[in-house]
Amino acid sequence: MHILVTGGAGYIGSVTAAYFLQAGHRVTVYDNLSYGYRAAIPAGAGFVRGDVGDRSALDVLFQSNDFDAVVHFAAFIEAGESMVNPGKYFRNNVVNTQALLDVMMAHNVRRIVFSSTAAVYASKDTLLEESDPLCPANVYGETKLMIETMLRWYASQLGLRYAALRYFNACGAMLDDNGQAVRGEAHRPETHLIPLTLQVPLGQRASVKIFGTDYPTPDGTCIRDYVHVEDLAQAHVLALEALDERPTMIYNIGNGRGYSVREVINVARQVTGIDFPAEEAPRRAGDAPILVASSERIMRELGWQPRYTALEEIIRSAWVWHSTHPNGYTDLL
Ligand SMILES: NC(=O)c1ccc[n+]([C@@H]2O[C@H](COP(=O)([O-])OP(=O)(O)OC[C@H]3O[C@@H](n4cnc5c(N)ncnc54)[C@H](O)[C@@H]3O)[C@@H](O)[C@H]2O)c1
User: Fold this and answer.
1) Distance from the CA of 35 to the center of ligand 1, in angstroms?
2) In the annotation, is 140 catalytic?
3) What's the rounded mean pLDDT across residues 124-151?
4) In whole angstroms, what is the distance from residue 86 CA to residue 159 CA?
5) Residue of 140, 162, 215, 259 with catalytic role
6) How many Å lie between the centroid of ligand 1 and the Cα of residue 65?
7) Ligand 1, atom 32, residue with closest C-alpha
8) pLDDT at residue 247, as a whole number
9) Res 205 pLDDT > 70
10) Ligand 1 atom 4: the closest Cα is on which residue?
């Protein structure tokens, strides 16, 4: 298939683009590089720089290519920022996705795999299933839920086939056969716990902050499900290839095990061998206490199996990336 990967210069999109190429598909990345990196785009993928909200640029792109499917990563992703600047998120995530869907319909491209998120759920202290109540605690999660709603209606009314993959916390780096890190996390600014934590042993940050120590969890800190980026990428390949048989798919993509903020920091200390400091800070708005996935549905229906289930292994792969690319992709530009 010829696949248009929006946001394919970003963290998860670039790894997934590499996986699509490995699976024998043709890939064109479309990204405005607002947060992505040209150096992250895998060799072998085409690249067009452009904005998902630019309807006429998308029209030209779809006119001049025979896409079979779209895999849509492009979005703004910071839950905290979405609470202080909601318009930025509704515009880029919701309004621009609607432009993309309309251009897809106009050009008769009716397959999409969409990056949804665990942030669509209400917090729960047992494993989250796809049928659980949807109640985003932040604007970012709400934008993703709104897109899922659009997908449902475009499917029922216009014949769109879609997979909405609700990722939990993406993490880790893509390693080659020699164990060298070839792609990894380099968000600007970084807000994710594992890369922020690893900046401390790298000497780039004085300490890591623990936001909230009075949550109703065993050690008082938030619990999250950390899923390795290569396992996420593999889920996209399986979902895309299943779209002809299964017109509508909604799947959690998580590891099935929750780890607290304190546990992540302690494992990072073990992996790096450095006993770096952590600092307790007040809760942040919009942080749910516990979000852990049941990924049983995608395992059963598509045979997905995560390869990286131990937090130590995940953090080790992230450490290989960050310790060899302390400035992310900027050294590769
Ligand atoms: N990282 C996570 O833990 C996580 C968890 C759940 C869901 N997601 C979702 O996965 C997707 C990818 O996340 P990521 O961590 O790789 O983020 P990222 O910021 O690294 O990648 C997003 C990419 O989209 C591009 N982009 C943004 N708006 C665009 C636009 N209007 N037009 C063209 N390109 C645009 C950016 O330049 C960037 O390259 C996002 O949709 C995010 O909401 C991520």
Assistant:
1) 8
2) yes
3) 95
4) 31
5) 140
6) 23
7) 51
8) 97
9) yes
10) 170
Environment class of residue 19 by beta-carbon count within 10 Å: exposed (0-12), middle (13-18) or buried (19+)?
buried
Domains of the chain as residue ranges with CATH = 2-170+226-253 (3.40.50.720), 171-225+257-332 (3.90.25.10)
Q: Which atom of ligand 1 is nearest to the CA of 170?
A: 3
Ligand 1 atom with the shortest distance to the CA of 37: 39
49 alpha carbon, distance to own chain's centre? 20
- Residue carrying structure tokens 């969409």: 114
Distance (Å) from CA 273 to ligand 1 centroid: 32
* Spacing, Cα 13 to ligand 1 middle (Å): 7
Residue 319 has pLDDT above 90, yes or no: yes
- Whether this model's pTM surpasses 0.90: yes
Residue 332 has pLDDT above 70, yes or no: no
Hunting for tokens 């164990």 — which residue is that? Answer: 179
Is the pLDDT score of 320 beyond 70?
yes
Q: Any residues with CB less than 8 A from the CB of 7 and at least 6 apart, and which?
A: 13, 31, 36, 72, 73, 74, 75, 115
The predicted model gives 53-58 an average pLDDT of: 97
Ligand 1 pocket: which residues have CB below 6 Å?
6-7, 9-13, 31-36, 51-53, 73-75, 77, 92, 96, 115, 117, 167, 169-170, 187
pLDDT of 286 reads 73
Q: What percent of the chain has pLDDT over 70?
A: 99
**How high does pLDDT run on average in the chain?**
96
Q: Whose CA is nearest to atom 13 of ligand 1?
A: 12
Q: Return d(Cα 67, Cα 91) in angstroms, integer.
A: 25
Closest CA to 18 of 148, 198, 245, 173: 173
Say if strands 174-175 and 181-183 run parallel, antiparallel, or are unpaired.
antiparallel
